Amino acid sequence: MERTLRNVLVVSLGFLLLFTAYGGLQSLQSSLYSEEGLGVTVLSTLYGAVLLSSMLLPPLLIRTLGCKWTIVASMSCYVAFSLGNFYASWYTLIPTSILLGLGAAPLWSAQGTYLTLMGNVQAEEAGRVARDVVNRYFGIFFLIFQSSGVWGNLISSLVFGQLPTHEPIPEQQLLSCGARDCLMAKAPTNSTQRVPQKLIYTLLGIYTVLYGVLFEKDKEAAFANYRLGEALGFVVAFGYSAFLCVSVKLYILLGVLCLTMAAYGIVEYQESQDLGRPPAGGATRPAEEGETQTKM
What we know:
This protein is mostly helical. It has helices at about 5-25, 30, 40-55, 60-65, 65-85, 90-125, 130-145, 150-160, 170-175, 195-210, 220-240, 245-275, 285-290. Residues about 185-190, about 210-215 and about 280-290 have low confidence and may be disordered. It has 2 domains: about 5-165 and about 175-185 and about 195-245, Up-down Bundle (Growth Hormone, Chain: A), CATH 1.20.1250; about 245-280. Its main location: membrane. Keywords: Membrane, Transmembrane, Transmembrane helix.
């Protein structure tokens, strides 16, 4: 196995473990901490911090620390957020969510930059097209990384499956579920109970242990810009989540999805046109010339 592929697998495994923990914890914030809207506020604050971080931090940290140490430092921000959930309050979750948000953009920018560098190094050593190797490495990474959603939610399900079975949901309450939920219905609720603190600690303990096995060790701006757009979408979505009916949210989601699919088609078309043009005078593309200038 080539050295660069081994490095990609190590990074992929690290992200798998990290987001198995964080992804499951994030999806439960609004449920575990519904009092006074703490959970939703935490998520809104988190992605607001990602928004600011994406504009300022990634190029600075990557050029100062290099990709690998930026990944390590950013992952520690996720650990701090998990620890804050052990003593959940406004005074612990808001600061740690800001810290996590500040670390998220450098983490993903460093990951994208590192995989791109590894792909270009391997392409140069093997005499292959850099674009093909980079695409292969990103495919391997996301194949491993995307499974984190399965494992994180599976752990949550197994832990909270210890709760007693709830009573049947009344028919009147079912009438305001799904797309018809406007968050203002006064239908009586079934006898739900708050999740026992012991189970929350059990879940957090499982998630935090996963961090212990993580490894030790102008494209930065492009990757940061991707996270900037993602964070902006989350902030807007969390902002209107408490004011709109689910049916309205679904129409908004469908409209944005159609818009982004059209925009992606335009980008693909423009990229295919650019690839069809030979570089003037056989010059190397500027992006490729600068590949090795970024610290690993």
